[in-house]
Amino acid sequence: MLNTNRRSRLRLLAATVAATAALAGLTACGSDDDSGDAGAKPVLRVGVQKDGVRAVLDKAGLLDDLPYEIEWAEFTAGPPIVEAASADQIDVAWVGSAPPIFGAASDANFKIIAQVQERDQQENSILVPAGSDITEVADLAGKKIAVGKGTSAHGLLLQALKRNGLSLDDVEPNYLAPADGLAAFTSGEVDAWAVWDPFVTQVVEQNDAVAITGGAPDEQGVQFEIASTKSLEEPETRESIRHFVNLLKEAWVWAIDHSDEWGDGWAAESGLSPDVTRIVAKNKAADFGPVTDETIASEQALADAFFEAGELPKQIDFASIVEPGLID
User: Fold this and answer.
1) 124-214: what CATH class?
2) pTM of the full predicted structure?
3) Which residue from 46, 70, 192, 273 puts its CA 20 to 30 A from 144's CA?
């Protein structure tokens, strides 16, 4: 039998343990109510490439005091961005003219919410090395061409070949991401490279590459802001997306008169030379706005051309992936 003193000590220990547990429970409850999570800002997940988006927003002073926190995710090109939006891994992002077409053909869950019209009407170029015997698109017959599958450069290549009486079957496409395309092009593994800026300017300035075509009539220089369908269905996230897209519109107005500042920020962000990014920033003046009927028609024509070339599993209705009302 326990003696009286030992029983007293055990009672005191039990009471202390119980009090400590009760206090811990109260603290935990207080944490649920008062931890600060209730007042935390929502998070907006933004997909980017080496496109200078972060830099232009930062340099324009538009990233201060936002009603949400931005979580940036960097991708190599537009197609994986569309896939990420469809999988609800990002909320909003900027892509070129072709990735939405390929996304729609694979039933990806995203919408186009704004268009970006480059004033020079040129997204891409087809490049050849200095001294190449390829001087025009017709000379590409039988040649190896690096290009990102499903990218805007893929669209330019398709349309440029078609205009010159050729098809993708008449050339040897090497479907490569930009970094691999650059390596293949500069090492001579391919004869030409279809790609977008800043990579065009990079190899022109640093490797004396020559552009044999680009822009109209084979492309219109239209790019898009897309958003995850699931994100658009959540009211708070939808409002954050609306706010962000209109910030981009404001940033690009600022960039027109501050291209050098943007270019320097772009260089710091991407690791590219300021000599490259300053040129691109000056050339890439653009206007944000709602998707126009003219753009829908030109994108539908591009989608039909991809389908006819056997590059898509099915035809798409481009207008069906456009959601209006999120940009002023």
Assistant:
1) alpha beta
2) 0.86
3) 273
